[in-house]
């Protein structure tokens, strides 16, 4: 259903990003998997159709890293249909991370990774998106970025900022812009934030991918600017009502 689509997935080395790399490739898309660690990215690409995944090891908080992604896309023709911003940094959480004691270095690092890197990568890629077919940008949101929750620190604040960035972009950019909240999902980041939680009680990354697959399709009817819940699509056919890609 996604044959011919060109998709960048940041945070492609683990968790939700890894599952999206594999899911998009399985549906026929050409995927750029982006993260810092090449070995983990190559593991993400394992088992995907030959030639479907291009690994880009890059630190997106640096201009050099963002330029590396743009260069890789340019070398493959320079047209891009979808960017999924799944990369994220948790930073300190819990009782020792209340705002009155939140460390300044972590404050800046988490904001840079979760917001500034998204913005400046967009500036690098928007020209390629404008050559795509009904292009879309999908931001991975968070429940703590839609309703403030104490002890989540800059992670929560940065997710609020990401929501604002997506709202502004949806209002000024002619392509499609979506905010998708995965909800609690069994990922390494979730385990770090909530070590006492039983991961078997929450959805896996594979469980929450249907909505992400759907939004990458050029015929997805969801309006730009929509704030969506991935859990609403668990167990559903992502292609319901869509014409074949």
Main features:
single chain, 245 residues, alpha/beta, seven-stranded parallel beta sheet, 7 strands, 38% helix
Can you characterise this structure?
With 245 residues, this protein is α/β, with parallel strands linked by helices. Helix content is 38%, strand content 14%. It is built from seven helices and seven strands; from the N terminus they run E-H-E-H-E-H-E-H-E-H-E-H-H-E. The chain has helices at residues 15-26, 38-45, 63-75, 104-129, 153-172, 188-193, 209-215, and strands at residues 6-10, 30-35, 53-57, 82-85, 136-140, 176-181, 227-229. Strands 3-2-1-4-5-6-7 form a seven-stranded parallel sheet, with helices on both faces. Helix 3 runs parallel beside helix 4 and helix 4 runs parallel beside helix 5. 44% of the residues are buried.
Report how far apart the termini are: 5 Å
Rg, Å, rounded: 17 Å
Tally of strands: 7
Q: In which order are the strands of the major sheet placed? A: 3-2-1-4-5-6-7
Category by helix and strand content: alpha/beta
Number of helices: 7
Largest sheet, strands/sense/barrel: 7 strands, parallel
What is the overall silhouette?
globular
- What do the pLDDT scores average to? 96
Helix proportion? 25-40%
The topology string of helices and strands comes to EHEHEHEHEHEHHE
Q: Report the β-strand fraction as a percent range.
A: 5-15%
Q: Which regions are unreliable across 5 or more consecutive residues at pLDDT < 50?
A: none
């Amino acid at each position: 259903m996604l044959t011919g689509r060109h998709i960048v997935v940041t945070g492609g080395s683990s968790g939700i990003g890894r599952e999206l790399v594999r899911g998009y490739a399985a549906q026929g898309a050409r995927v750029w998997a982006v993260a810092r660690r090449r070995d983990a990215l190559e593991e993400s690409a394992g088992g995907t159709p030959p030639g479907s995944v291009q690994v880009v090891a890059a630190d997106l908080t640096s201009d050099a890293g963002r330029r590396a992604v743009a260069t890789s896309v340019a070398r493959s023709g320079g047209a891009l249909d979808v960017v999924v911003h799944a990369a994220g940094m948790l930073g300190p959480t819990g009782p020792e991370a209340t705002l009155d004691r939140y460390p300044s270095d972590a404050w800046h690092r988490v904001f840079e990774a979760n917001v500034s890197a998204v913005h400046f990568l967009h500036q690098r890629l928007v020209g390629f998106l404008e050559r795509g077919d009904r292009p879309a940008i999908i931001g991975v949101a968070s429940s703590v970025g839609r309703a403030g929750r104490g002890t989540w620190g800059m992670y929560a604040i940065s997710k609020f900022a990401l929501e604002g960035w997506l709202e502004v972009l949806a209002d000024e950019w002619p392509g499609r812009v979506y905010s998708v909240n995965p909800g609690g999902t069994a990922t390494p980041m979730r385990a770090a934030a909530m070590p006492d939680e039983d991961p078997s009680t929450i959805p896996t990354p594979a469980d929450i991918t249907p909505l992400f697959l759907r939004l990458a399709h050029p015929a997805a009817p969801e309006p730009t600017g929509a704030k969506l819940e991935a859990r609403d699509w668990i167990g559903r056919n992502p292609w319901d009502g869509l014409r074949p890609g």
